[in-house]
Write a structure and sequence with these properties.
Elements: H1 3-19, H2 26-37, H3 46-49, H4 51-72, H5 77-106, H6 112-131, H7 146-156, H8 166-176, H9 181-207, H10 213-244, H11 247-267
């Protein structure tokens, strides 16, 4: 392990933290950046395991609300409904993620052209949805009905394809089903916690025999930078979305996907 690998891990961790909670696909950004940097992780575990840093960033920002929710579970129907809604939204991705894990890691993660195309197509769709004259009826992410939450979870499954974006799929689904932009983004935050924690635990279990001490160091560096960057994003994203919507992210997706295709054409 050389110093260049450490710097690559730090850079990719920064990308993970900056892009995990905005609808641009952090996985696509990491895989494309890693491709052009020549960065290779054991079993493609780095790209999944550093998400723990982003998870902890959410927990640190929302710890007070989540703790109050946990203490109110025995007595509050609203608290129990929220937990049920999150679990129902998490369920579809948990099932499909386990079934399709090897295909996702061994095929989809290794197809940069597909990643670029899904970035561009997803950007066009996100821009179109953001411009629709939708009339939201749900304004509080912690009060989404369980049925609505489950449908949002089905949309999240689209993000099994790198480039689609987990947050982008959940936010787009929520907007189309009557949620306002701020609460859609916030529900995506909450849903990220079990989804990303589950992906982390399952990927670690699957690849535990392959990882070395050097891998642990590289993952640790990426984790630290992902945590720091995600902390900034989580604290500022909701206000940004309330003012500007999601169109800026759509254009970013299109620009990155286009640049990726050009880079692949020039350098392979």
């Amino acid at each position: 392990m050389d110093i260049g690998t450490i710097f690559d891990a730090a850079f990719l961790g920064l990308i993970e933290g900056l892009t995990e909670f905005i609808p641009v696909s952090s996985t696509a950004h990491i895989l494309l950046a890693g491709h052009f940097l020549g960065f290779e992780s054991t079993g493609k575990t780095f790209e999944v395991l550093i998400q723990l840093g982003a998870i902890l960033a959410i927990l640190s920002v929302y710890f007070g609300r989540l703790w109050r929710m946990a203490t109110q579970l025995p007595t509050s129907p609203d608290a129990r409904r929220f937990v049920i809604a999150i679990l129902l939204a998490f369920l579809p991705a948990a099932v499909i993620g386990v079934i399709a894990h090897d295909f996702i890691k061994n095929v989809l993660f290794e197809t940069p052209v597909l990643i670029c195309i899904t970035l561009i197509v997803g950007g066009i769709i996100l821009a179109f949805i953001d411009r629709l004259d939708l009339k939201p009826v749900h304004h509080d992410a912690m009060r989404y009905p369980p049925g609505l939450a489950f449908k949002i979870g089905v949309f999240q499954c689209l993000a099994m394809i790198p480039g689609v974006s987990r947050s982008g799929a959940t936010i787009a689904g929520a907007l189309l089903m009557g949620c306002d932009k701020r609460s859609a983004a916030e529900f995506s935050f909450f849903l990220a916690m079990p989804t990303m924690a589950g992906a982390f635990a399952y990927d670690l279990f699957k690849n535990r025999a392959l990882l070395s001490a050097d891998d642990a160091v590289i993952i640790g560096v990426g984790f630290i930078f992902a945590f720091a960057a995600a902390l900034v994003v989580v604290r500022s994203l909701l206000d940004f979305v309330s003012r500007h919507g999601f169109t800026p992210f759509a254009w970013w997706r299109i620009a990155v996907g286009t640049a990726g295709l050009i880079g692949l054409w020039l350098w392979g």
